[in-house]
């Protein structure tokens, strides 16, 4: 068998062409390497890399025929062969006169764009935010959203390819304006290509799909409540039925959150009647009951996504509960009925939540030692932020709760209950300014 080195470096078996065929290229040869190889002989206008069974062949196309002839002639008479990464490359004229790359749907301009939303909070971008962004370039006919392996994506349909092209050229690689996103969402960028679709099929109006050309399209069953009433919110998502009982989930719980801490936080918006805490899915959740729905709505809107402690610790995620009246059988560190002060004290959990482990026998929530919950190498909890004000004594804190002036509270008032162990050294509650949600993280 003839060795590779004995093969001719060029061939005259084909008539001259602007396109040259290259063989014996290194693995995964790049377009830049091919352009660099042909640059001394003329302008390389097109390339096609990694062809052939072994992906070691390629084509380069010159702007002029004489440029391709010059390259072939030079290496035919040169003692130095053409090389890429130190590997000898064999040249010949191609039997094609130009390189035709098979274009994908992403390369062909159309009236439908495929949009990939990138970012940690991409899945929280609503369909109405996308509509606002893209309608700046023309009338948006339809939008559908979905999740693929590439991430959270959307198809956006315009009336023609020109409007879609204008939107693509302006928005590709850009961030969604922050003022269009909720405060708790991080940056979300757009990666846009053309879609092969020309007319999207939208069967229902929902938080995942919209047809703006057909206002009479039925609403998806998932967006209709049990009474047959449409519960689609302004953001296009299914609207939660409001309730006087809130379900609070606590995320990133680096510090202890007691029942009294929750009472202090939520009573800033109105009288809290009952609280029940429980463990679920590896985290801590709580049900908080108000006397009316409106108070619960105000509390939910003010606290959703905020943190109890500075530094992003103990973040609250709040939704409405299906409960309307919690059944509290006993007052302890996991459940409390503030409307009946003489409810029996014990370690039994509320009946609506099932049995939960409780580590206490006293009717009062235990005193928490700050060092017990401090990060490694830290003897005490971090001090509260400057928002506490200069009137607070500089004493060690067992829990760094950040509670400040609350616009929904009368000036100079404080919540009715302070969590035991929140202040050491005999600090008086009367010296603490009321809770303020503007300091929440």
UniProtKB/TrEMBL annotation:
<dbReference type="InterPro" id="IPR035979">
    <property type="entry name" value="RBD_domain_sf"/>
</dbReference>
<keyword id="KW-0507">mRNA processing</keyword>
<keyword id="KW-0694">RNA-binding</keyword>
<dbReference type="InterPro" id="IPR034793">
    <property type="entry name" value="PTBPH1/PTBPH2_RRM2"/>
</dbReference>
<keyword id="KW-0007">Acetylation</keyword>
<protein>
    <recommendedName>
        <fullName>RRM domain-containing protein</fullName>
    </recommendedName>
</protein>
<dbReference type="GO" id="GO:0003729">
    <property type="term" value="F:mRNA binding"/>
</dbReference>
<keyword id="KW-0539">Nucleus</keyword>
<dbReference type="GO" id="GO:0006397">
    <property type="term" value="P:mRNA processing"/>
</dbReference>
<dbReference type="Pfam" id="PF00076">
    <property type="entry name" value="RRM_1"/>
</dbReference>
<dbReference type="InterPro" id="IPR012677">
    <property type="entry name" value="Nucleotide-bd_a/b_plait_sf"/>
</dbReference>
<dbReference type="InterPro" id="IPR000504">
    <property type="entry name" value="RRM_dom"/>
</dbReference>
<dbReference type="GO" id="GO:0009845">
    <property type="term" value="P:seed germination"/>
</dbReference>
<dbReference type="GO" id="GO:0000381">
    <property type="term" value="P:regulation of alternative mRNA splicing, via spliceosome"/>
</dbReference>
<dbReference type="InterPro" id="IPR021790">
    <property type="entry name" value="PTBP1-like_RRM2"/>
</dbReference>
<feature type="domain" description="RRM">
    <location>
        <begin position="18"/>
        <end position="96"/>
    </location>
</feature>
<comment type="function">
    <text>Plays a role in pre-mRNA splicing. Binds to the polypyrimidine tract of introns. May promote the binding of U2 snRNP to pre-mRNA.</text>
</comment>
<feature type="region of interest" description="Disordered">
    <location>
        <begin position="407"/>
        <end position="441"/>
    </location>
</feature>
<dbReference type="GO" id="GO:0000932">
    <property type="term" value="C:P-body"/>
</dbReference>
<dbReference type="GO" id="GO:0006417">
    <property type="term" value="P:regulation of translation"/>
</dbReference>
<dbReference type="GO" id="GO:0005634">
    <property type="term" value="C:nucleus"/>
</dbReference>
<dbReference type="Pfam" id="PF13893">
    <property type="entry name" value="RRM_5"/>
</dbReference>
<dbReference type="InterPro" id="IPR034792">
    <property type="entry name" value="PTBPH1/PTBPH2_RRM1"/>
</dbReference>
<dbReference type="Pfam" id="PF11835">
    <property type="entry name" value="RRM_8"/>
</dbReference>
<keyword id="KW-0677">Repeat</keyword>
<dbReference type="InterPro" id="IPR034794">
    <property type="entry name" value="PTBPH1/PTBPH2_RRM3"/>
</dbReference>
